[in-house]
Amino acid sequence: APDIPVIDQAYSKLSNSITVEWRAVPGATNYMLTAQDGDSFVETIVKNSPGTVMGLKPATLYRITVRSINSGGKSQPSPFRKVKTVLAAPILSVRSPSCDSIAVSWKAVRMASGFSVSLVRSDGLGRMLKQNTTNTSLIFTNLDPGTLYTIKAYAWNANGMPGDDFTYNQRTSPNAPVDVKVAFNSGALRAVVSWMPTEGALTYSVTVSSGLLKLRCNTSSASCMVPSLQCSSEYYVSVTAYNDAGSSEPTDAVSLKTIPCAPVNISIEEDEPGHLLVSWSSVTLGHYYVVFVKSDDGLEVHCNTSHTQCHFQSDCGFTYFISVFAYNKAGQSPLGDVLNYTTAPCCPSDLRAVFVSSDTVRVTWAPVRGADLYETRAAGGSGVVLCRDTATACTLSALRCSTPYNITVYSFSEARGSSTSCAPQYVATAPCSPEIKNISKEGLSVVSVHWQPNNEGATYIVTARGEAGLWHCTSTRNSCTLMDLPCGSAFSVSAIARSPAGQSLPSYSIPLETAPCCPNDLILTQVTQSVTNISWSVGRGAQTYVTTLESPKGQAKCHTLHTYCLLGCITCGTNYTVSLRAISEMGLTSSCTYQGYSSSACCPSGVKLYRLSNNGIRVFWRASDETINYNADLHGSKGNFSCTPSSGLSHCDITKIPCGDVYTVVVAPVTNKGPKLTFCPKKIYSVTCSGSSVGMVIYRGKSNAKHI
Description:
This protein is mainly β and 708 residues long.
């Protein structure tokens, strides 16, 4: 084993170790250092001198020995040396209670008599501050805010020997930021808070408070954005600087008033036509208000007020879009509810009412703005007639005749309803159709027409219409007379009523037939002694005729469809009254009288011829009346001969009549005018020649002849 080493010196510079120095031992490869404290010891193997025993207790007295070691073993311990470890370093607790101070505290150190604490800026600027104390805390003041300081502290024992030192770097808390500014973004309802950076501050905290509400924003820069602010709120903004030492005092609060909230409870009233009243609830922090009213044609007006209502002019039939904004120094409120208000549609203009019949009126008007539907109302009489349509025209039918109506056209919209102040137009319907009650004949060409008057202030016009033309009569009462109606005509009689309001429909037509016309010409021709032919011209309107010849001796009558008639049983030489009745198809009769008629005188009887000397012939007859003149006619092949006796005689002579011929002899009464009568009996006589100048007259009746 190697030799025992000899300790030169042993000392403690750290509270947990003792350093030992010795002279080297030849042949030793290692050395064992032993520090013994009572029953406990600590051993450390080192290569050479000096060597340090670690893991010791501070302020403790140890017996230090050294043993040399080689491959042969360990030497005996060296003579010991007593060495006491130095005091332990105080464990500092450091803080910066303010921006210009650092407070240092520590726990008591065993065996320590006092403490020494020094402080210096870590950047080496400035002077060192040092304090000795027997206490376990102290405060350094008047320091630079936000500055990093290095703090060293150690304890010493009763001999004044210092122990381990403890070094700690501590920064003072920052100073409060200055020049705090708040920029409010009214559109986004957020604020940007900025300030001047403060020395030593690592982070900043912005506090925005309003009542119980607090918003925070943390940043390492010199500005911070605070979002989600509320409208109509007043906030107090402060900034606190932070570093690892703590925080600064918060800055003095800066007041931030946000924009007002959008007005609510907006109401729109049309207090009277053409005037809109917009009102709303008051808004906190709202200094004044602006109301924008934009019509659907693009025109916009606005109103500035510090009150909570505004008046606007409005037009009918427009839709207005209304928004209300509140303002203060921070700006304009957000857009709130945009209300629309549609005014009632305008009343239709250019109203025209035209009657298309007595009970139907067509109403037209110009289209109006804002109208979806139109209602035409005719009020009159005891009821109302309605018509609804989307068109700008309406036909009101089934109106009561002769009735005044107030016609009003209202326009409707789905949004607002109807216009209520439209002016009516007065119209009156045409008179009611009169009802003809009866038609009475006052004469051949005069007819009275009676009707039921059912209109006030109306004039009635009666018209008789037929092929013969038109006849009229007019009255304001209940009847009128048609004059000078032509005979034999058929008419349709109707009546209308006329007033300033118009003309009624015609009444139902009543047929009217006038009595047939009397024939203008009537001719009587005596066919035989007892038969007379009567002929006449056509009587207009007549279907049949009744002719009558009447005398004290009797009557002859004929009823025929024709315009002629043969009447028998006529007494010769008699005066007759002539009458004719024209009868229409409906049985109307016209009695016609004509000039009297006298039948011809009676034909004579007992006609005979006697031969006279000198070739003459005497014609004899028996007259029916001595006052009648007669005429005798002889017709033969050798000539025609006639004679007329003097008044009152019943014979006449014809001289120089040729013999040897057959003569037809007719003796007939002489008429005052007209042709000779041809219906008296004819007798045939043959006149023969006898000798030179004597002949015979022979009567030839039918197959016989008389010779004279």
